[in-house]
Amino acid sequence: xxxxxELGCVVPYGAGKDCKSFVHxxxxxxxxxxxxxxxxxxxxxxxxxxxxxxxxxxQGISRNGVRYWMGKYNIPTRPxxxxxxxxxxxLKPNLPKQFDIGxxxxxxxxKGLSAEDIGRMFNRKSSSVYRFMKGCGLxxxxxxxxxxxxxxxxxxxxxxxxxxxxxxxxxxxxxxxLYWAEGAKRFSTVDLANSDPRMVGLFVRFLRQICMVKxxxxxxxxxxxxxxxxxxxxxxxxxxxxxxxxxxxxPYVRTDFxxxxxxxxxxxxxxxxxxxxxxxxxxxxxxxxFI
Length: 291
Description:
The protein is an alpha+beta fold. Among the domains are: 78-152, no CATH class; 166-290, no CATH class. It is built from twelve helices and six strands. It has helices at 39-47, 52-59, 63-72, 80-89, 101-110, 115-122, 126-135, 143-153, 166-182, 197-210, 230-241, 277-290; strands at 4-7, 27-30, 190-194, 218-225, 248-254, 269-274. It has a four-stranded mixed β-sheet with strand order 3-6-4-5. A two-stranded antiparallel sheet has the order 1-2. Helix 2 packs across helix 3. The longest helix has 17 residues, at 166-182. The model is unreliable at 1-13 and 19-31 (pLDDT under 50).
C-alpha cells in the first residue's frame, strides 16, 4: 500500500484569498517512491534465474523499482553476457550452467584449469568462458604460462626404479656418466649419439632397467655413409638394442665423405632418443649430484 501526503497552498504575504496573484498548488509526495521488496524474496527471484523485467512483471512494479532495491540491498547484478545466457536458457538442470566469478577465478587462476576444461565442467564452450572473463575484467594467461601449466600437469612416461641392487647402482652410474659425456643437454629430448655398440647397448639398458621408460617411445636414427648398406645396418642396431625397425626414423646418409674414413664407423652411428623433457631434467639432476 502506497502512502501519500498532500501539501497545501501558498498565499503571498498581504494578499487575500481572492488575490489574482494567489498561487494554489497541490504537491503529492509519495512517502516511498518504490514498493517494498524484501531482500530474501528479491535474492531468491534473481538467483533463481529471473531477469529484472520478469521480476518487475511478477511483482507488479517497474523495472527501475527492482533496480532500486537491488542497489539498496547490494545484490550484484549479472554481467551482460551472463544475463543474456540466463534469459535464454534459464537455470534448469541438464542445461549449460551459469558462470560464477568466484568459481572461475578459483578454477582458472588457483587450480590452473584451461578454458576448455572449465567449459566442460559447465557444459559450455571455451569461447563462452573467455567472453565471461572479458566481461568481468579477468585477464587471460599468456601462451607461455599456459604451456608451463600444461607441462607441469603432464604425467611421467617413465618411473625410476627406487630400490637398486649393487649391479644396478653401477649401471645407473655408468649410464649417467655416459650421458654426461655423449648426450645432448640443450633440447627437450634425451638423445645420445654413439658408434660403439657396447656404449649404445649400455645406455639402452640404463633407460630400460633404471629409468624404466616406455618401449613405444624409444626412437633410433641411423647416421651413415652412402657406400654402406643401410638395411643391414638397421637390422644390426635393431637386434642389438631390441628396438623394432618400425621405431627407426629416416636415416641420415652422407654423400660427401673422404675415402680414408670409409672404415671409421663400420656400423655407422646411431642416435638413441626418448622424447620426454622431464626425463632429461631427471638425468641432469643425477649428473649434478656427482659434481
